[in-house]
Hints:
By secondary structure, the chain is an alpha+beta fold. It has helices at 38-49, 58-62, 96-100, and strands at 2-9, 18-19, 75-83, 104-112, 114-116, 122-124.
Amino acid sequence: xxxKQVIIEGFKSYREQVATExxxxxxxxxxxxxxxxxxxxxxAIRFVLSDLFQNLRSEDRHTLLxxxxxxxxxxxxxxxxxxxxxxRIPVMLxxxxxxxxxxxxxxxxxxxxxxxxxxxxxxLIK
Length: 126
């Protein structure tokens, strides 16, 4: 099992949605100029996989949102797609779509003030 892709939106230096190319199951390297967001990229992965962010106060959660110029970001998400083709973590398939995804699963964590669910209702994230 390995991380196949990371998708980030509104988190720290990532205002617009950014999706990585598919990672190799072997060795990967993240490179970029100073200030390009490399540290925030790994911070986003820790945000999803670690329990360090479970009990953050509202002010502390707000620091995770993008604070650059332009419109204020009200929510952010980090999504990690795992390739589980080796079936290291047994996952039950519930539909044909699960089978078509090629034995991958994802974890998505959202932080922010407001979000809209699939029905269009606005909800407060606590």
